[in-house]
Amino acid sequence: MSYKIIVDSCGELTEEMRSSGIFKNVPLTIQIKESSMVDNEILVQKELLKKIAESEECPKTSCPSPEKYLEEYCCQQERVYVVTLSSELSGSYNSAVLGKNLYEEEHGTKEIHIFNSRSASVGETLIAMKIQECEEKGLSFEEVIAAVNQYIEEQHTYFVLENLDTLRKNGRLTGIKSLVASALNIKPVMGSTPEGTICQLGQGRGMKKALSKMIDIVIRDVTKAEEKVLAIAHCNCKERALEVQKLLMEKAPFRSSILVDTSGISTVYANDGGIIVVV
User: Fold this and answer.
1) pLDDT means over runs of 10, the chain (279 residues)
2) Which long-range contacts does 211-214 make (Cβ < 8 Å, 24+ apart)?
3) Of the candidates 207, 278, 209, 227, the residue with the CA atom closest to the CA atom of residue 248
């Protein structure tokens, strides 16, 4: 069976994924003052960070329209899978569902399934890779869905950012009441809840101690590491990401590991120097 995997542009695609012909990003949009940018392969991370730094206003993001998803569903592939940002953080999931409804109204039924990642960034990447793995094993459409849903249930997302301003100002930290004042240089260790919202897991004084705390939490939480892929996304801090990758690989026997630059959307929220880890 032929298949296609659509990932909204908060999920990074590796070079191998891009060249496979299987994966496709559907772009979100970034708004900084009057400037609107499409989050696609043309967007340059350092230019985006410069625009963010120069703007007094907090950047905003908007999800793809249902019509953008509909365009991707109109393809020759018999099966279409979609992986979106957590529905608790973005309207991307709802847009993908509405796009499916539009497709069925216009063209009839097709094997299309939309996964709410309950994560973001490389969490979406790993889910997309899991779909490909299941398809390559020859599983049925229903078996792929069941296996990937189980994978999502077991996935964990962690991150440490230099600052949380964009997440806070855009309402993504709702319910988190006890973030320590930045004047003390306290860096919270954040993570995802089972529902796909953001929670605080710990903290450290300074980036180095916060990352060390995050590594300890990852190792505490991980089970069957030998069966899992470790994924790390970084925002303009490759050396920092490589060090985190090295320490985690030394502490647990992960099956493999990938490391990517943050996409445009992830860059907006991670800010310069942010690290995201997903297992």
Assistant:
1) 96 97 98 94 94 91 98 98 97 98 97 98 98 98 98 97 85 66 78 94 95 98 97 98 98 98 96 97
2) 211/160, 211/240, 211/244, 211/275, 213/189, 214/158, 214/159, 214/160, 214/189, 214/244, 214/275, 214/277
3) 278
